[in-house]
Structures are given as C-alpha cells and as structure tokens.
Design brief:
Layout: H1 4-14, H2 21-33, H3 37-42, H4 50-64, H5 69-73, E1 75-78, E2 81-84, H6 94-107, E3 113-118, H7 124-132, E4 136-142, H8 145-158, E5 163-167, E6 178-183, H9 198-203, H10 217-229, E7 230-239, H11 245-255, E8 260-265, E9 271-277
Parallel strand pairs: 3-4, 3-6, 4-5, 6-7
Antiparallel strand pairs: 1-2, 7-9, 8-9
Helix pairs in contact: 1-2, 2-4, 6-7, 7-8, 10-11
Length: 278
C-alpha cells in the first residue's frame, strides 16, 4: 500500500508543471486525510486506505489538468483567515489584501463607517474589513446568488452578524450615505483573455473576470453610482489591471472632479488600486 511519504512523492511527480508541486501535493493529501502538516510528517510511513488513495489520485489528476488547488480543497487563505471557495467565486489573491490594508489604514480611528464591498464574491474583502474595523457597518453586494451564498458562509464563520448581504447590480440596490466603497470588479480586457492561464480561464467564473473589450466596462458603470452615494470625506478603492491606472484615474476624475485620485502599485510595481479620496 502507498504510504504518506510515497503519496507526497507521487503528488510532486504528477504536479511537476506547478510552481509549487510539493505544497500542492501536501495540501491535497491533507484534504483527503483531514489531517494537518504535522501529522503527515509524524506519520509519513503510515499507509493510505484504499478509498483515500483513490480520492487522492483523483484530485491529482484534476490538479494536473490545471484545476486550481483551492477549488479542489474548497478553501483559500486571505488576510490570515481561511475562506470557503467554489467555482462560483474568484480565488482570493494576495494583491487584493493591499486594498483591505489601505481601507483599514484609512478607517482606523474613525467613528462609525458605512461601507460597501461591490462584487463581493467569496466575501473576503467585506469579512476582512469587518474584522479590522469593528466600527464599520458593511454590506457586501454581488449579482450572483451563488456567490452571495459563499460570502454568507464566510461571514458566518469569521464575522457573524457583522456583514449584510444584498443581491445587486453594482450599487443600484443601495442608497446614498456610504463612507467607503471597495470594489474588485472584473477587469480583464478582451485581448488579454487568451493570455490567461488555463487554470484561471477554464475554472474561475468568467462573470467575475471579463471586464469587456477594454476591461473597464463595469468600472465605468460603478463610478457614477459611487459619486451619487459617497459622502464627503469618503473613499473609493478600485482594484484594477496592471496597465489600467491612467485610464481608470481619468475616469475617476470625470466623476469626482474635486477628489484626490491616486494610483497605487502592488508589490511587483504594477498598477493595482485606484484610490478616490473626497
């Protein structure tokens, strides 16, 4: 029978295409065995059961076909928390943590804040803000009912009774009086779609990725809605594509002519967030 040590070796061989084959194999094995890393190390000579080995080999086959590991194991890390994910939501990215950090720095020390997370997906932004800014009244909106169900599960796990959930086309279901608007909307342009990895374009939801011909379709729709709903002294944070800073900043200035608009780079030095401070 295959031992835990042999299973990890098998996994690394199957997932040689991955940037992190050892990590991926371990995560899949932890998921199948429902054991943590320490257990795998301490019991590496323990054999897998027949059903466990079959389940593990099945997951390896799917991972070798570029299905993302978080979908296979059903969860992904973000801001130190573990979020449930499914094919109905994007996998949380480290780049998006920077948006949460900017919002947290802005909101820390302020009195009660009304915030909206637009296109919430897994709810990772809304839930993280609820944890970081306890004085915040936050509502998470999404057009996808399936995504809202995932967000609700994550809110119940990490921020019970702190996050409101509303099905809405952007901000249309919300009224004015918001202090903070955060949005990680689809921003992949049509010409970029063929360049995406197989794992992204084949398994993650197109609704949450494709932003129209130039990638800015939904950002154009959101900005006038945000201008009608943001209080003076408020903040809008938009996650954007790596070459969209100038274009999104120009759109933002059209709708917020008196605001301070800035483009923030990610850790790789690429455009990643447009901040609008009124």
């Amino acid at each position: 029978m295959t031992t835990i040590r042999e299973a990890q070796r098998l996994g690394r061989a199957h997932l040689h295409h991955s940037p992190s084959p050892a990590l991926d194999a371990r995560l899949l094995l932890e998921h199948v065995l429902q054991r943590d890393r320490a257990y795998l190390i301490a019991h590496d000579d323990e054999p897998l059961g027949v059903d466990e080995e079959a389940a593990y080999r099945s997951l390896l086959k799917r991972a070798a076909a570029h299905e993302p590991i978080p979908y296979l194991i059903g969860h992904a890390p973000f801001m130190g928390l573990d979020f449930i994910v499914s094919h109905h939501v994007l996998i949380p990215r480290p780049e998006t943590e920077q948006l949460v950090e900017l919002a947290t720095a802005w909101g820390r020390g302020k009195a009660a804040i009304r915030a909206a997370d637009v296109g919430t997906g897994s709810g990772c932004i809304a839930v993280s803000l609820a944890n970081a800014l306890p004085q915040t009244e936050i509502v998470a909106v999404d057009l996808s009912q399936e995504a809202l169900e995932i967000a609700a599960a994550n809110a119940a796990r990490h921020a019970p009774e702190r996050v409101g959930l509303v099905r809405s086309d952007l901000l249309t279901a919300l009224g004015p009086g918001l202090d903070l608007i955060a949005a990680n909307l689809p921003y992949i342009a049509g010409h970029e779609w063929p360049t995406l990895s197989i794992g992204v374009k084949s398994y993650e939801p197109t609704l949450a990725l494709h932003g129209g011909e130039d990638g800015l379709e939904l950002i154009r729709e959101l900005l006038p809605q945000a201008a009608e709903r943001l209080r003076p002294g408020g903040l809008v944070l938009l996650e954007i594509g790596w070459q969209q800073g100038d274009a999104v900043a120009a759109l933002a200035r059209d709708w917020f002519p008196a605001a301070v608009v800035s483009v923030r780079a990610d850790f790789a030095g690429h455009d990643r967030i447009v901040a609008i401070e009124t």
